[in-house]
Design goal:
The chain is an alpha/beta fold and 264 residues long. The chain contains twelve helices and eight strands.
Length: 264
């Protein structure tokens, strides 16, 4: 399995698929590149797709450090450099979108076109309270309760209704998915601390922000703010699908993003 060694000795797991312009698909708080599912193989028809597991998740080193969005972005930048890419397209979902903001602001030469999927620029009271509850569930009730509660925020009600058995199976393996709860708690603290709102006017990458109207983690007004503050950014709003809309409306997600990335 391919890994790169980071400056501090930790290892980052990654995969590369397809041919074409390089496109990094970067997952959210869970950090596991497998979250993208069938989107990887289908987008690999048009792009060289790179997915990775964030440090502290999946098949990467489970580092017990103080996490930050800037640190996560720097890990990804080291992967870009290790793979020899001068610049890449970046599609970041949720936390991955926060990482994309950091890179587009601080390393603009590295990010070609930027897709911000279900993400936010600065924490507000709603976001903070949501993640306080999720962190408390993990600390006091454990990984299974954390995943059970999170599923209700991350997915549309109709998706939960139709995937009850799948969610139960995930909850049964929650301790395998979250072997070190302290890492998740540190990563939650990192995303709650994220604030790049005052720097968004520095973004020079062509930017598309995508969100579902019923997203209860990063509500529509976060995307509206991103589009208002990033020069010439545009938005695409799906009618439903929740925070995990790429699992629900994969065809539409891929169509809209591919059109944006390939347009002249």
């Amino acid at each position: 399995m391919p890994h790169i060694k980071l400056r501090d000795g930790a290892e980052l797991y990654y995969e590369k698929h397809g041919n074409g312009p390089p496109l990094f698909l970067v997952p959210g708080l869970g950090g596991d590149g497998r979250w993208w599912g069938e989107n990887v193989a289908k987008l690999a028809n048009d792009f060289t797709i790179v997915v990775h597991d964030h440090r502290g998740t999946g098949r990467s080193t489970l580092s017990r450090i103080a996490y930050s969005v800037a640190q996560m972005a720097d890990d990804a930048l080291q992967l870009i450099e290790s793979l020899g890419f001068e610049k890449v397209h970046w599609c970041g979902h949720s936390t991955g979108g926060a990482m994309g903001q950091v890179l587009a602001i601080e390393h603009p030469a590295r990010i070609d076109r930027l897709v911000l999927s279900a993400t936010w620029a600065k924490t507000d009271a709603f976001f903070r309270r949501l993640f306080e509850v999720r962190a408390q569930a993990l600390k006091e009730l454990g990984p299974a309760a954390y995943q059970k509660g999170s599923a209700l925020a991350l997915n549309s009600p109709f998706w939960v209704r139709d995937h009850d058995a799948e969610l139960a199976a995930m909850e049964a393996k929650a301790h395998e998915a979250i072997p070190v709860p302290e890492i998740v708690l540190s990563r939650i603290a990192a995303i709650v601390a994220h604030d790049r709102r005052d720097d968004l006017q520095k973004v020079r990458s062509r930017t598309l922000a995508i969100v579902a109207r019923d997203d209860m983690v990063t509500p529509l007004y976060f995307t509206e703010e991103l589009v208002r503050l990033i020069p010439d950014a545009r938005a695409y709003v799906l009618p439903d699908g929740g925070h995990f809309y790429p699992h629900v409306h994969g065809d539409e997600f891929r169509r809209v993003m591919t059109s944006f990335l390939l347009e002249t």
